[in-house]
Amino acid sequence: MSILLSLHNIFTGEKRMTKHRAQHSSAVRPSDILKFDAFVAAVYLPHVKLRKRSWQVDERIARQRLSPAFGARRLDGIRRGEVENWLHDLAAQGLSPATCNRNLAVFKSVCSLAMLHGVLPAGQSPCAGVSAFKIHFQRERCLNLAEARRLMRALERSSRPEAAAIRLLLLTGARKSEILKARWENVRLDQRLLTVPLSKSGKPRHILLSDEAVAVIRSLPRAPGCPWLFPGHAPGKPLSDIFLFWRTLRRGLGLADMRIHDLRHSFASFLVNAGHSLYEVQKLLGHSDPRTTMRYAHLGQASLLSATQNVSDFLTPDSGRTSEGREGQNGESGREENAPMPSRGTRPAIRRRHMRARPPYRAVRRHEPQGRQDREKQKKMR
Question: CA distances (Å), 214 to each of 52, 238, 265, 267, in order?
Fold first, then answer.
């Protein structure tokens, strides 16, 4: 009896699986997958979910920018001119060139995957030949010392959790997602560490906490049963958006052009201006590629002016200005101010390759040939 029951369960399970497969396969017909929205939902989004951590950005762009213009269209019916007009319409709506280029990049990715799956003929992407906008201005905005101190004082006066989160951003140079999604279980105040289990590089990273950062974390209320340092408005969710608070704050401080991510730029700028190496900046920011750190290694105008003044003071010692960097890097002082300059006929001893003294010529005494073979060799040499 038990054997018959087992066979019945197996047969019933196979029938259910067959029915589920039939329903799933009939949900997306081959003719429907040729349309943009159907292809994105059935093929593109499952593809990027397995390969991109920021797949939500692609989903949002496809839903908000691409679907209204091309959602009901067949992919093989979209023409290059339509894509160019769509791109220029986005720019006319006020989107920045960088945002327009990101939208175009998602469109190109969809078309590339469609060609890979045979939905589009090879080499016939409607995005082929559509050029992205040129970005002529590399935005570099960092807080100066006065602005940073004014911002910190305003944040200290606020009891909002957004204010504490922004203080940690400026004190640690961390990314916004790393602070807003921080968990209490990843905080080690005794070791002055905040661990990010999965950073942008795909590896865990450790954020070092200064005394002020530790004080900010200690001041946060810890709700029972809530794992987040900054709980959100929805139950069980972290704080997701601090833009509204930041926009009001920056306008009141006269920092309307500052973005949240510019706090990370400012942290790196303060490190470089304080004399720290790019290696230290790279480790503190969590960059896996040193070339990325070069983007954050901004030297402030005051530091550049000081470096220029050092050269000027070195070349013109009689101008009355003094330079702190007059002494050499190895602790050896430079030439004394009253030391006489070398006269015209006196040439400094400069070591050059072509001026190296050659060793004295030594006459090599040839040995007299001792036998017949030696005499023949001597004749050949002559």
Answer: 33, 20, 21, 17
H/E run at residue 200: none
Distance in angstroms (rounded) separating the CA atoms of residues 52 and 97: 23
Please tell me whether the overall predicted TM-score, pTM, comes out greater than 0.70 for this model: no
Q: Specify whether domain 145-296 bears CATH 1.10.443.10.
A: yes
Domain ranges of the chain: 28-137, 145-296
Separation between Cα atoms, residue 215 and residue 213, nearest integer Å: 5
Q: In angstroms, rounded to a whole number, what is the distance separating the alpha carbons of residues 45 and 23?
A: 20
Query: Which amino acid is present at 198?
Result: L
Contact 255, 152 (CB under 8 A): no
Alpha helices in 223-351 (DSSP H): 243-252, 262-273, 278-285, 290-296, 301-315
- Token digits of residue 307: 């470096």
Q: What CATH superfamily is the domain 28-137?
A: Tyrosine recombinase, N-terminal domain (1.10.150.130)
- Does residue 249 contact residue 262 with C-beta atoms inside 8 Å? no
What gap in Å lies between CA 218 and CA 241, rounded to an integer? Answer: 22
Question: Cβ(92)–Cβ(99) under 8 Å?
Answer: no
Tokens at 239, concatenated: 């704080």
pLDDT in tens, 191-248: 999 998 877 766 788 999 999 999 999 999 998 889 999 999 888 889 988 999 999 9
Tens digits of per-residue pLDDT, 259-287?
Answer: 998 998 889 888 888 878 878 888 888 87
